[in-house]
Amino acid sequence: MSSDDYRRVNHANWEARVPLHTGAGGYDLDAFRADPAHLSGTVAFDRPRLGDIAGLDVVHLQCHIGTDTLSLARLGARVTGLDFSGSALAAARELFAECGAEGTFVEADVYEATEVLGRERFDLVYTGVGALCWLPRIREWAQVVAGLLRPGGGLFVRDGHPVLFSLDDERGDGVLSIEHPYFETPEGVRFETKQSYVDHEGEIEWPTTIEFNHGLAEIITAVLDAGMQLTAIEEHDSTPWCALPGLMEEHTPHEWRLVDRPERVPMSFTLQAVRPA
């Protein structure tokens, strides 16, 4: 795989997902249009840990169609969303316009963020669920984050746990086994997934993805080596999507966990860090 193969493959996949995620069974955009106080399930979960972000300059990396970005704006932040999918950003801009919200959206790869946005421009870098698995080099990502932050600025990540991403749930007998890499590998893992994680008819037009796992210690070490200080790390037994169909139930609104002994497996984690002033 050349250095650009993963980006080309994954870009095609995410472009193909946009009409599915903006459709009737997708991200429930009508709820945002109907209620000016509505927040995404992800940001609602994050809110107690985020604290007061009113008046902060916040960049949302890998913002997709902007529902979490809009939720951050509704908490009072001045938001910038960055994503490599032009179709996703078009949907985000349309959603903001329909909701009367203000935000800036920039089309770029995450690794180019400091080049296109500028250094030391933000009080908070926010990365939501399902973002880090698309990045092959976690140490470079952490350097980008540190470059975007002003002194005293913070990083907030909630994402799927690397243990979850290492599991194989396709045996058909309900047994979970570790089959995929837990640690970062340069080549990643190629998947063929014909269905997205939202309800939709038909299949994804481009089903191929190349994904990369990063061990929890790899992520923490990358953050520390980039000059940031860890302020919180928490593991959760739930995710905001049904990551293992047939084995999970909606435990609380927008949060899914294992039906059988959910204490067995960490499903997601929250990491917070600060760039020292």
Detailed description of the structure:
The protein is of the alpha/beta class. The chain has a single domain (5-274), classed as Rossmann fold (3-Layer(aba) Sandwich), CATH 3.40.50. The protein contains nine helices and 13 strands. The protein has helices at 5-21, 29-34, 41-50, 67-74, 86-99, 113-117, 138-148, 162-166, 216-225, and strands at 57-61, 78-83, 103-107, 122-127, 149-160, 167-168, 177-178, 189-192, 208-211, 229-236, 248-252, 255-258, 268-274. The strands form four sheets. The chain has a seven-stranded mixed sheet, sandwiched between helices. Strands 6-7 form a two-stranded antiparallel sheet. A two-stranded antiparallel sheet has the order 8-9. The model has no long low-confidence stretch (mean pLDDT 93).
Brief summary of the model shown:
With 277 residues, this protein is α/β, with parallel strands linked by helices. Helix content is 31%, strand content 25%. Strand 6 and strand 7 (177-178) form a beta hairpin.
Task: Spell out the blueprint of helices and strands.
Blueprint: H1 5-21, H2 29-34, H3 41-50, E1 57-61, H4 67-74, E2 78-83, H5 86-99, E3 103-107, H6 113-117, E4 122-127, H7 138-148, E5 149-160, H8 162-166, E6 167-168, E7 177-178, E8 189-192, E9 208-211, H9 216-225, E10 229-236, E11 248-252, E12 255-258, E13 268-274
Parallel strand pairs: 1-2, 1-4, 2-3, 4-5
Antiparallel strand pairs: 5-13, 6-7, 8-9, 10-13, 11-12
Helix pairs in contact: 7-9
